[in-house]
Amino acid sequence: MPSKLRVLVNRPRISPSSRRGLGGGQVEVPPFPVTEPVEWIYTKFIDNKPSSESLRGANVFIGTDFTKEMGAAADSLGAILIPAAGYDRIDPEAVPEGCIVANAYHHEAPIAEWVMAVAVALDHELFKSERTFRAGSWEMWPGRHGSYRELMGRTFGIIGFGAIGRRVAKLAQAYEMPVIAAGRADTAEGELYGANYIGGGNSAREHVLANSDFVLISTPLGPTTHGLIGTHELGLMKPTAYIINPARGHIIEETALYNALKNRTIAGAAIDTWYQYPESPTDAPRPSDQPFWELDNIIMVPHHSGATNGTATRRAQTVAQNLDRLTRNQPLINIVHEISR
Length: 341
Prior knowledge:
By secondary structure, this protein is of the alpha/beta class.
C-alpha cells in the first residue's frame, strides 16, 4: 500500500430534503474519521455500484457491491471495506488476488430493538387495533375481541447466534421469555447470553422452529443459507408462532413464506429484508413477486431496522480504523476470510 491511500467511496444516495444535519450533502468532507492522510475519490451510484473505470488506481474501495467488471478494472486494489455487515453482494470471484475484504457490524442494538418491537406489535395485534379503532370500530376491544397474548413465558427461538441473535437473547430475557438458539456458536456462548443453545445443523434448527413461539432469522446469507427456511421448515412451526426476518430476504424461500402466511399455517411475520430492491433514486419496485402487501398478518418495512445514526457512526469509525491500519501496515479487524484473497 502507498503511504497515502487512494480511497474510492460511493457517493451517498441522499435526497435533497434529507440532507439537513449531514453537512448539506457536501460529500467532499471525508465521511470516515481517519487520522492518517487519505486521498478521497468519490463516484456516483450506478445500480448501487461505481463505474468500473473509477476503480483504476484506487487502493481501497468502500462499498457494499463488487462485481467481476469492477474486479477486472481494479488494478491497484488492496482492500474492500464494507460499511455494513452483509457481504453477499461481493462476488468472491471478482475479488482481486491479494485483496482483503473486511466488514463492519454495529447494527445489533437497533435491530434487536426492532425485533422486540415487532414481536409486541404482532402479539398484541397492535396495528390492526389502532387502525380499526381510529376508523370507529370497537372490534378489538377485549369485551368483543377477547383477551390478548403476552410475551412473558413464551419461547423465543433464534436461528443464527451472532451479534444480533445474542443481543435479542438478552432483550427477550428482560421480557421473561425462555430463549433457545441454533447456529455456529457454542454452548458456553449460549449460557453467557442466557440462551439454551441447541447446536448447529438441521436437527438443532428444526428443534428451534418446532418449539418456539417467535422465530428470529439472524444468520448471514450465503450459499449454505440461501433458501434455508422453506416449506418443510415453516411447516414445523406452531400455527400460533411468528417468524421475524431482519437478516436477508432470500434466507426464507419467497413463495413458501407467502403461502404459509396466506394459508395461516403460521400466525404471522415481520419482514424487514426483501427479494427485490430499488436500483435508482426514483424507481419503486414491489419487494417481492408475491403480493405480501395484501395480507393482514405481516408487518413489512423497507429494510430499515438497523439504519440508525448510531449504526452509521459506529460503522464509519470501524472503516476509518481499518484505513488507518492499512496506512500503518497493521492487521485489519473484521476480516471476511471466506472471500479475502
